[in-house]
Design goal:
The longest helix has 22 residues. The protein folds into three domains: 135 residues, Galactose-binding domain-like (Jelly Rolls, Sandwich); 289 residues, Glycosidases (TIM Barrel), CATH 3.20.20; 80 residues, Immunoglobulin-like (Sandwich). The chain is 19% helix and 35% strand. By secondary structure, it is of the alpha/beta class. The relative contact order is 0.11. The strands form six sheets. Strands 16-17-18-19-20-21-22-23 form an eight-stranded parallel sheet. Strands 25, 26, 27, 28, 29, 30 and 31 form a seven-stranded mixed sheet that branches. Strands 1, 5, 8, 10, 11 and 13 form a six-stranded mixed sheet that branches. It is globular, with a radius of gyration of 25 Å.
Amino acid sequence: MKKLIIHSILLMFICNATFAQSFEAEDATLTNGAYSVASSSASGGYYVAQKEGDLEFSVTLEEENFFNIYIRAAAPNGDKINKFIIDDARVDFSLSQNNSYISLKVVSNLKLAAGEHTVKIEKSWGWINIDYIEFEIADQSERFNVGENLVTPDPADNAARLYQFLHDHYGKKIVSGAMTLNSMDEINWLKSKTGKEPALIGLDFMHCGRGYNWYNDEEPINDARNYYNRHGIPAFCWHWRDPLRKTEAFYTDDTDFDVAKVLDENSPEYQAIIDDIDFISGLLKKLQDDGVPVLWRPLHEAAGGWFWWGAKGPEPCKELYRLMYDRMVNHHGLNNLIWVWTSQPNDYEWYPGHEYVDIVGRDIYEDGDHSSQIIEFNQLNDMFDGKKIVALTECGSIPDPENLIADEAAWSYFMPWWGDFVRNSKYNSVDFWNKLFGHEYVLTLDEMPDLKSYETTSATVKIPMTEDNSFRVYPTIVTSELHVENDKPVKNLSVYNISGKLLKNFQFNSPKTVISFSSYPKGVYLRKVNNEEAVKISKQ
């Protein structure tokens, strides 16, 4: 195996160019039939025809840093998916049919320690041509740029509080969760084995609205209400059965329901879709009336195509998602929903849009793998420009919190699926559950605040160009009073509307200040302390 070395460069930006280092594929160790081919169009004069084979590089880093990693490759034999592995972290990457070489980012913002690392490109489908891999030092200045406002106009107070809680703890703690099938099944099992319960409960409208005489349609909303009243977080998905009632199926292979008819308002399919959305909206409205917010994750795993809502490609699915949003929010007036989109790898063309999504998630099933899934996290965060909270919306084996901390994988919450994924040691052992629930990085139900009265106390922004000097302005969702604390005396605080118009300037000479905010109408404001950093505030 040939060793490749990245030399650390202190001046990483010369003429605004980011430092990068490439490594030729022909210098890697080639196995299982991969071989190098002379080519004047390839960097270094050679590329590697992967065929059914694999490549392995040994890369030595002199200093710890964050890296983007690219593969320059072509796929002349059709669309292909293969595996990229660095040390113990792995991810699938896909190439569309292309005779020309393209530079594909396969890893974003990956924190790598100084020393030797092993990089592999392994066959899944194989049959791509690889020119080189490239390491680029990643800019960390805007890794996260998550907003504090929900996409629902004038959201319910408790929905805003729940989102603010998730926002405040993002990257600092992970919220524990578990999916249920029958009322409280996995929650009760975990309590019996660990003495603790997860902070989040996963619920499903799978059986609702079908007229089953063996099922109470209000069971999931009763569970949601009860868990929220115990300071928990209810998260709903919907295994949406055939709206035309020809079958009881939701899998593409088991129903011929045509989601593309969502584009035809005169079709029976469109009316059936509306009827089902209206029924579920009625259940969600009961939770709204009781002040219960919901993490709402409809049309999950759409790009996989195995559910009918993803069977006809991205456009009908996006139309359905937006129709549901409009029907629920604008027609039924639901403002207690926090909208969650489950993204599959390389599916950005399926994304409904920033204006319809509050949280993005990924469903990852890796048996017995308790790694942080940092590559998946960074891909997702990078795909949405750091603007959305990222969650592990479903999983089999749960990441070990020590790995989450070491890799800085900031998943907001995790939720293993019900049944064996919770109970079977193949995925998560009882010993692991006890370690998980006892870890300071993991929030369990007994550690949750009362979300009905939650107010942030953690909005801290460093004032630029000052040493060991910061201010805190809280809460960021305010009803009456605004608190300001500073390491040094606050000279002035300015309040602006969202358009940047100065509304009020307060003069102080104290490290702690409380001002009245009761006279301001509802909306979003900006505030500056000592004419420095601006912080957003939402008046409810």
